[in-house]
Design goal:
Layout: H1 2-6, H2 11-21, H3 31-43, E1 47-50, E2 56-60, E3 72-77, E4 99-102, E5 105-108, H4 115-129, E6 138-143, H5 151-155, E7 165-168, E8 176-181, E9 183-192, E10 203-210, H6 228-238, E11 244-251, E12 261-267, H7 270-287, E13 296-302, H8 311-323, E14 327-331, E15 339-351, E16 354-363, H9 366-382, E17 386-393, H10 403-416, E18 421-425, H11 431-437, E19 442-445, E20 450-451, E21 459-461, H12 462-477
Parallel strand pairs: 3-6, 3-7, 7-19, 8-18
Antiparallel strand pairs: 1-2, 2-6, 4-5, 5-21, 9-16, 9-17, 10-12, 10-13, 11-12, 11-15, 14-15, 15-16, 20-21
Length: 483
């Protein structure tokens, strides 16, 4: 599989991508990929720095004739989202990503591909190892833990970088130049409950919601895709009078729209319960028929659990999840078609006397981010939950006077005879965070076309990667001289 990938053009990029994808690199488990990058830099004889939070910085001098150009920081993150289909047998901790070519796309076999942000990392590696690509002095910044808290960017201190321009290679449409992004905050609601005995003459069932597309909880939130936690809660609400909840396990990562959810319930009134279940199942599938064609809501009889929630705890949970906002909260009044504020109800766990609900709130406006977070807090607090905020990071405010933006806009127009889309995105890029300790750094974000990020449908366009690579090389040639 990966041999075919290595023969794709540009070979420098795809070969590095294949090498990178052989290394497990989940967020907060980056030890092996950090060692991989350090070894890569050392073998090239370049200066390698590891900062206190384990970001890797590799420095390369300018090529001949480019010594007077501004130093650039080329930046991508090392970690990737680990998601797989329910029926895919794969161990992210020990196996490399299994890739294949599907027409113009590179895909993974039942898992996320890691093109987000692996193609950016591979591109920087190709520049660092090159002997024939003109470029100014480079500081390659490989950050950790972008996907689950951006702790790498947050922990990068001032003084490690001298670059005046930052090229972030984490945008996912090749005709876009990113000039701004959303900030985010984790909202976590927790509540304990006391197990109660199961009513006599009960039957236990497992309910499964699966087959949803999922996707990036920022970039894809505008699509109105199904959220398995919301769908499961709707099923439980419809059957609330005829069942008791024993367990719920829905969703996975905060930054991924949840695709699957499982619940164990018991009922002593099978006829009423099944009638309510079938009715709500039919409603949900019909509502989402045009966008979630593979959606399944299944039920099967299982062994009896040991206990269930009380009716009061059950109602508090179901009402809280029903009332909690999911999806777009506000569109930007200033930038057309840009989601300003949103929330993703990413994770719902009910087990062993504890309820935990995990959300990721995003906004390009800091006050809007906290307004959404406070809205959720009020909702969950009314239902008796404790609410905590964590992992807050700022957005990136667009700079209309950016010098590198003017350069890259002209390069794009000259190369492709069309204007690029200059916009902000509803995703968490590291530029806003990095700017807190490097406020004078001029920043831009761009990259090849990647679809379905954070889901097993993730795929990278081969032709787009070729276009992006040529654009990157031309950009390096046009970095302005120092003042």
């Amino acid at each position: 599989m990966n041999t075919t990938i290595r023969n794709l053009e540009p070979k420098r990029v795809w070969n590095n991508f294949a090498d990178l994808n052989a290394v497990p690199r989940a967020s907060k488990k980056e030890e092996r990929v950090i060692a991989f990058m350090v070894d890569f830099g050392n073998k090239l004889g370049l200066e390698v720095v590891i900062d206190p939070v384990q970001n890797v910085i590799i420095k390369k001098p300018a090529t001949k004739g480019m010594e007077n150009r501004k130093t650039i920081v080329m930046q991508s993150h090392l970690d990737m989202v680990h998601q797989k289909n329910n029926d895919t047998v794969f161990d992210f901790d020990t196996e490399g990503i299994k890739m294949y070519v599907d027409g113009d796309w590179v895909r993974a076999d039942g898992t996320t591909l890691g093109a987000d942000n692996g193609l950016g990392v591979a591109s920087i590696m190709a520049i660092l190892e090159s002997t024939d690509i003109p470029h100014p002095a480079i500081e390659a910044l490989f950050t950790i833990d972008e996907e689950t808290g951006m702790t790498g960017a947050l922990g990068l201190q001032g003084g490690y970088l001298d670059g005046e321009i930052l090229l972030n290679l984490d945008t996912e449409d090749d005709d876009e130049i990113g000039v701004g992004c959303a900030g985010g905050v984790d909202v976590t609601a927790t509540k304990s409950y006391v197990d109660v005995k199961i009513p006599s003459n009960s039957t236990a069932y497992k309910i499964t919601v699966k087959g949803l597309q999922g996707g990036h909880s920022g970039m894809d939130i505008i699509k109105g895709l199904g959220n398995s936690n919301k769908m499961m809660n709707r099923v439980l609400h419809a059957t609330i009078d005829n069942s008791h909840i024993a367990e719920i396990d829905g969703g996975s990562l905060r930054n991924a729209i949840p695709r699957e959810s499982n619940a164990i319930v018991v009922t002593s009134d099978e006829s009423s319960f099944m009638n309510a279940f079938e009715n709500v199942k039919k409603e949900i599938i019909e509502e989402y028929d045009s966008i979630e064609k593979d959606l399944e809501i299944n039920i099967s009889e299982i062994d009896m659990p040991s206990s269930v929630l009380s009716k009061d705890d059950q109602r508090a949970l179901i009402n809280a999840v029903y009332a909690a906002h999911n999806g777009v909260f506000r569109m930007s009044p200033d930038i057309e078609d840009l989601v300003e504020t949103s929330n993703n109800i990413a994770r719902v766990i009910v087990k062993d006397g504890n309820i935990k609900i995990g959300c990721l709130t995003r906004s390009s406006v800091e006050s809007g981010k906290w307004d959404m977070a406070n809205t959720l807090k009020a909702t969950f607090t009314l239902a008796g939950f404790n609410v905590e905020y964590g992992g807050s990071y700022p957005g990136w405010k667009p700079n209309p006077n950016s010098a590198i933006l003017k350069v890259m806009k002209k390069v794009y127009e000259d190369m492709f005879n069309e204007k690029p889309n200059i916009l902000a995105c509803h995703a968490g890029l590291e530029c806003g965070i990095l700017g807190t300790n490097y406020p004078e750094m001029d920043m831009i974000s761009f990259g090849p076309t990647i679809k379905g990020a954070h889901s097993p449908d993730e795929r990278a366009s081969i032709s787009s990667t070729q276009k992006y690579w040529k654009y990157l090389l031309e950009t390096l040639k046009n970095i302005p001289e120092r003042a």
